[in-house]
Amino acid sequence: MxxxxxxxxxxxxxxxxxxxxxxxxxxLSSMAGERSVVHNLLESGDTLSTxxxxxxxxxxxxxxxERMEILPARWREAVRPLDCGNSGTTARMISGLLAGTTGLxxxxxxxxxxxxxxxxxxxxxKKMGASIFARNDDSLLPLSIKGGDLRGCVHDLQVASAxxxxxxxxxxxxxxGITTVIEPAPSRDHTERMLVxxxxxxxxxxxxxxxxxxxxNPVFFQIPxxxxxxxxxxxxxxxxPDASITIRNVGxxxxxxxxxxxxKKMGAEIEWMVEETSPEPCGTIVAKSxxxxxxxxxxxxxxxxxxxxxLLALAGxxxxxxxxxxxxxxxxxxxSDRIASTIENFGKLGIGIEEFExxxxxxxxxxxxxxxxxxxxxxxxxxxxxxxxxxSEEGIEIAGSDSVRISYPRFFQDIAEVCR
Length: 420
Ligand code: S3P
Known about the structure:
CATH superfamily of the largest domain: Enolpyruvate transferase domain
CATH topology of the largest domain: UDP-n-acetylglucosamine1-carboxyvinyl-transferase, Chain
Bound molecules: shikimate-3-phosphate
CATH architecture of the largest domain: Alpha-beta prism
Number of strands: 23
Strand content: 25-35%
Largest sheet: 4 strands, mixed
Mean pLDDT: 97
Distance between the termini: 17 Å
Number of domains: 2
Strand order of the largest sheet: 2-15-17-16
Helix content: 25-40%
């Protein structure tokens, strides 16, 4: 895909439904005791992985992703290995679900997912009594789970990961006694919010979340737009010299808005208004051409913008002064090593960024002339360099641009609309 520069950007858009919340809606509604109805589910590579795996293990879905009815699952042993595709959320959350479900299951994923750490979820589930075996000393997919009786316990997590927290909470729903997860820093809380709305027996006390076995009420949910998908348009508007973008009906959960807060601190002309608070905060973002100043970013904000940090490198390239981020080592464990794939690709465009094990430092402003990059099969890297291409002088060619199907299948159509 060759991305060409655009002179002017004025638009109002709606971004696709939230990916994280869509995964949770598909999984949790199947655990309810009665029929659920969910509106506006994301239909993309990752959520289709969850949808297919859930069907294989007995979930009952009807309708389409705009309006889906979900009947209580009739859990069964799948007759073949479960393909989690590229999706870490599918592999980790469904491991938690299967740990307490009778039967033997094998989970596998694509090459990228097979490199991503699974010990962080295998160890706590084993501590609860699950029988799990996995490749490379129980650390990588494929893995096999023999679900059965679990006992609740306290888990003090080493990394702030919503996927791990969610997997443990799902296992905790099936365990004897109380299961508690303590996070080192607050990660996204969509699972907790949905479980609370379903009447789960839960206690949330700062960074500690506890859950007990119990019946779940059905889910009636309208999923908001994905703020992570919106972020590409936000950064485009801010960095472009003649732009204004309004994004409506987008999720604005505080645990996801770290990028918006950071851009504002860098001097961005950006506003976001929460218009609804239930079941998830949701509203409008307006972003305009801005002059940014470099910033040393608070590492405490990392979990609330974990998927958006590569965009901060682009913001830093355009900002005046230095932009530094540390404490973001988790980026190396995503669909690609996002510290390396961001810096290497900027390097191919002649833009220098200093690499740290847990972050980077960039001096700006630097010119983006153009050239060729490679997404490394990572949807967020493909979308990042699309934005860079629109801001460039001569355009950017992206190899592996089809990876956008993982979270945002219509990304290039929407981009074309915005740049008209
Ligand atoms: C997600 C949590 C984050 C995020 C991922 C989606 C989720 O991962 O990077 O894109 O839906 O729970 P971690 O839990 O590994 O931080």
